[in-house]
Amino acid sequence: MTDDRPEQPSESSVTDAAPADAQTLWHGRFADGPSDALLAFSVSLDFDRRLAADDLDGSRAHVAMLAEVGLINGDERAAIVDALATVEEEIATGEFVFVPTDEDIHTAVERRVAEIAGPAGAKLHTGRSRNDQITTDLRLFIRREGRAQIRRLLDLQAVLVQRAQEAGDAYLPGYTHLQRAQPVLLAHHLLAHFWALSRDVSRWWDALERLDVSPLGAGALAGSSLPLDPDLTAKALGFQFRFANSLDAVGDRDYVAECLFVLALSQVHLSRIGEEITLWASDEFGFVHLADAFSTGSSMMPQKKNPDIAELARGKAGRLIGNLTGFLATLKGLPLAYNRDLQEDKEPLFDAMDQHARTLDALTGLLATIEFDVERMQAAADGAAVAATDLAEHLVVEGVPFRDAHAIVGKLVRQSIERGIPLSELVETEPTLGRDALPLLEPGAAVRRRTTPGGGGPGPVAVQLVAAQAKLADERARLVD
Ligand code: ARG
Hints:
Elements: H1 36-42, H2 45-48, H3 52-68, H4 74-93, H5 105-117, H6 130-167, E1 171-176, E2 179-185, H7 186-210, E3 213-214, H8 230-236, E4 241-242, H9 246-251, H10 254-280, E5 288-289, H11 308-332, H12 346-369, E6 371-372, H13 374-381, H14 388-397, H15 402-419, H16 423-429, H17 445-448, H18 458-480
Parallel strand pairs: 3-4
Antiparallel strand pairs: 1-2, 5-6
The structure holds arginine.
């Protein structure tokens, strides 16, 4: 779903009407065809057909290289290129007919090219193995889809910046241990999530840079006796580098694990946003009201309005963490080089990509339309005790050591609770504080006093907002490059 290219045909286009000569790629060596059980167990076409566009790109680069080094002639090259174009068209329109022996997308494309181009088509796979082919396809796929994920992350970040800007000087309690701690601007809170997502974007760029290596030309595992030129295919596919070691090229899936980590951690960030929205939407907090279009009702309880998007954002984090840990477990025992276990890379990757993309879209809509109940937030932040740190810091400015100041104010808070006396009264009669300290207890005073760089008051938040906007603009520009 993160793929901008046309939908791949559905499973229904797999037909039993296999051409009479349909056969496996290894039919020469085998007297018998594959059992139904083997086919059902090992076929990856259901999910790897999603790589069709990348597989075709890889094949075009490979064919160009074969012609360049003289392994096929110009006519053969033209015939294969034409056949690849036909296959692309057939897949795009849904006319492509898959047959039961199409174990994976590579097999399907190669079979069809051979049907269309005849003997020239049978030269397509010269010097190539599905082992270097699949990992080439997957790198191309992630290169494209990773950018689509970045675009979505930036869209969500843009909404956070927008809402932070609109929030102005509105404030709420900041929490530690989920206990009211010190007030901060709502903008500050929203931007905290912005920076977490910014690190996700940065992790994507890192991951994309590391996977920018072409494995094509590694063959099954050891390179080739044919005069292949892997640099040519790397260049044609727009990879910055080619592999240095053919065993590593076909056996490496670090880049998949890394993407799964980037996705899992990013989903954890979305989960934390989801958790907060869920809390904030409760009657107990009452800090937000969700738009109808981004909340759900109950089938039984007419009064309910539920934050399902926020909860699913949270719930799906478990699934993405599972995708990562499951795949790491797949990798951990594999000897070099290619092992069929590696086919298990695609489903967790596709799933994590799709779930993350859907979460980003839904949360972006939710946050764009959420209504902040600023009155409730501010009332919660205006409790006198929230200014306790400021009272202690007031004493520090008067020369009282901070530990002593902490104890003085702590005692006043305890007395206020135990004796049911407003803190302001106790502050007024406390000799070290007195009337001078009372303005600290006024609504909004504590937040205005948070003036240090990166802090939660209006001054530093204004600076932070400009930095966030600049960061967003930089990342958008990088994406266009
Ligand atoms: N479907 C396989 C995968 O995803 C393609 C490579 C198969 N290679 C092989 N030697 N069976 O890994």
